[in-house]
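The instructor's notes for this session suggest beginning with a concrete chain rather than abstract definitions. Hand out the sequence below and ask the class to guess, before any prediction is shown, which regions might be ordered.
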Amino acid sequence: MDSRSGAAAFPRAAEAPAHTGVWRFTVAPVDVSVPEARHAVRDLLVRRSAPLSHDALDGALLIVSELVTNAVRHAALLTPRIGVEVTLDARRLRLAVEDGHPYRPKALHADPDGQGTGGRGLLLVQATALGAGGDCGVDATSTGGKVVWAALPLDLAR
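After discussion, reveal the predicted structure:
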């Protein structure tokens, strides 16, 4: 018992780190939404003191830029709003972008001749996520669209 109040003293459950949570916002399927989403995610991660190195933060912002760019370029006709979700848990950062297009993209192989100027965004996302020890993927939504996501480990030594 707690001698001050006479109430039984129970051990406190382990509290989640202060940086954890899930945040969602939407952007219009237009080009100016790419920097808008990138800045919103950067500001959120800084405000939440997410334990990310400078390189990991840069990688996360590259991922957001590429995923929102793909949604703007390839899904705008079927997507009135692009959804962006940022999830921070005790061990990782997950970035997800949802659109209304049913096509499930696959990372394209780089053009061996080096002549192509597009089609490498998902390769960048995949390389950034896997290179940091994370993962990436595509999931179907219940409404026929998709969520393209990438997860990065947090720098727990910080």
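Then share the key points. The radius of gyration is 19 Å. The chain has one domain: 21-153.
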